[in-house]
Write a structure and sequence with these properties.
Elements (H helix, E strand, L loop, with lengths): L8 E5 L2 H4 L9 H16 L4 E7 L2 E13 L12 E11 L8 H16 L7 E7 L2 H9 L3 E2 L9 E7 L7
Parallel strand pairs: 4-5
Antiparallel strand pairs: 1-2, 2-3, 3-4, 5-7, 6-7
Length: 170
């Protein structure tokens, strides 16, 4: 596949029924297992929400979102020990659609979703637990995320975040 018609992409909140008969392979066993096996328990136990990216009728990507909080070292207008965030727990693109900007399109959708949601509830950042490898870090940095300190005890992951800026209406 060399071209994706982005007007034919749909992102839909998944439910257990939708996850029963999908095929998906992003080339990473852990991410594949999360979607094809672990997602049922995650949805049932309200641990995250899973969104599927469809290209026509095929699932070509997915991501999970959940509540989070992060500590920041920079000076913000209101000082708290941590700030509300939405976490991208998992994000993957099917092997046949990688390197075609589908992942970046999903990040753009997530940013828009979180900006709209931040008008209703407190959200200051979007965070992600990303694999600590050059390709993955470059992907998130190219999509406006900045690296934070590594989490203690998570030597294989690095935290990344992006600030959500929303004008306050007075």
């Amino acid at each position: 596949m060399k071209y994706v018609d982005f007007s034919s992409l749909k992102i839909i909140k998944a439910n257990s029924e939708m996850l029963k008969d999908i095929s998906f392979d992003c080339g990473d066993d852990d991410l594949n297992e999360f979607l094809l096996v672990d997602s049922y328990d995650n949805i049932r136990n309200n641990l995250c929400t899973i969104f599927l990216c469809f290209y026509y009728e095929a699932v070509i990507g997915f991501f999970s979102l959940s509540a989070d909080s992060i500590k920041v070292n920079e000076k913000l207008p209101v000082k708290y020990s941590s700030y509300p965030a939405i976490k991208i727990g998992r994000l993957a693109v099917d092997k046949g659609f990688q390197n075609l900007n589908v992942g970046s399109m999903m990040i753009s959708w997530i940013i828009g979703f979180c900006r709209n949601l931040s008008l209703e509830i407190g959200i200051r950042f979007i965070s992600v637990d990303a694999y600590n490898n050059e390709k993955t870090i470059n992907f998130y940095e190219n999509n406006l995320f900045i690296g934070l300190e590594n989490a203690i005890g998570k030597k294989d992951e690095i935290f990344q975040c992006i600030r959500i800026s929303v004008k306050n209406e007075s």
